[in-house]
Design a protein that fits this description.
Order of helices and strands: EEEHEEEHHHEHEHEEH
Structural class: alpha/beta
Distance between the termini: 41 Å
Shape: globular
Helix content: 25-40%
Length: about 260
């Protein structure tokens, strides 16, 4: 379970700066088209990375897929069922730190496990803290953790409910380079471990090449799909040794309007 179909998806917003008419009577020129007729299909268990220039609508598309936003036209289906709102089966990890600061790491993880018996709850929390290498920090508060540890705790909280699908909106934002590399490796290992569909928005091309089973590159507004590539490479991957990944990296840069030669 975890197939996603995006059919003729479009998203428009009212242009509040130029619009002179009322909210009840907007004209054609009062709208900004962000997503324009997007059609994609992702298979069950894939790791999908979405790239694109800033402001192109990557996060908007992710929120629509997760049910936190609505399309202007078109639709998203998960396992052939239209997405009409958020689902407890599909967890969203936001850009900003989502841990509740007045709760310990353990208490944060327990938020989605209230239906479990106490013993099972403790076992589930321990299992996923160990998965992200945070066992022993369960009684710490978020402010007592580094930025990287907070992101790992958020991943553990999202995974502990055993979702069918995980959506991540730039989960490495604000992390130093070494921490980003470590968490990237952990996310890849987690994906291998749980085998669930994961969709991640990122602006790091290297992350997409290392992590993804499928890469989607969006263009400037009005946004359409400029490139879609399935990656048939095993893991761990090495960008230096894999000529095909180097060529794809250069193609992605060119697609995004950057001449990359290193």
């Amino acid at each position: 379970m975890g197939q996603i179909k995006i059919e003729s998806l479009s998203k428009k917003y009212l242009n509040r700066r130029k619009r002179k008419r009322t909210l009840e009577d907007p004209g054609p020129g009062d709208w900004i088209t962000v997503l324009d007729d997007i059609n994609l299909q992702f298979e069950d268990g894939e790791m999908i990375c979405i790239l694109g220039p800033s402001g192109c609508g990557k996060s908007t598309m992710l929120r629509i897929m997760a049910g936190f936003d609505t399309a202007s036209s078109g639709r998203v289906l998960i396992d052939d069922k239209p997405v009409t709102g958020p689902s407890s089966d599909n967890i969203f990890v936001f850009q900003s730190n989502g841990l509740l600061p007045w709760m310990t790491v353990e208490q944060n993880l327990e938020l989605g496990l209230r239906q479990l018996e106490p013993d099972e709850k403790r076992e589930r929390v321990a299992e996923y803290l160990e998965l992200v290498e945070l066992l022993g920090f369960e009684h710490h508060f978020p402010h007592q953790l580094s930025g990287g540890m907070q992101r790992r705790a958020e991943l553990a909280r999202a995974l502990a409910v055993k979702p069918e699908m995980l959506f991540m909106d730039e989960p490495f934002t604000g992390l130093d380079y070494l921490t980003q590399l470590k968490i990237r490796e952990e996310v890849v290992n987690i994906h291998e471990y749980i085998g669930k569909t994961m969709v991640m928005v990122t602006h790091f091309i290297e992350d997409a090449l290392i992590m993804a089973d499928r890469i989607v590159v969006l263009g400037e507004r009005p946004t359409q799909v400029r490139l879609q590539q399935k990656l048939d490479y095993g893991r761990p991957r090495n960008l230096v040794k894999e000529k095909g990944l180097q060529d794809l990296r250069d193609e992605i840069f060119l697609t995004l309007g950057v001449s990359y030669a290193v």
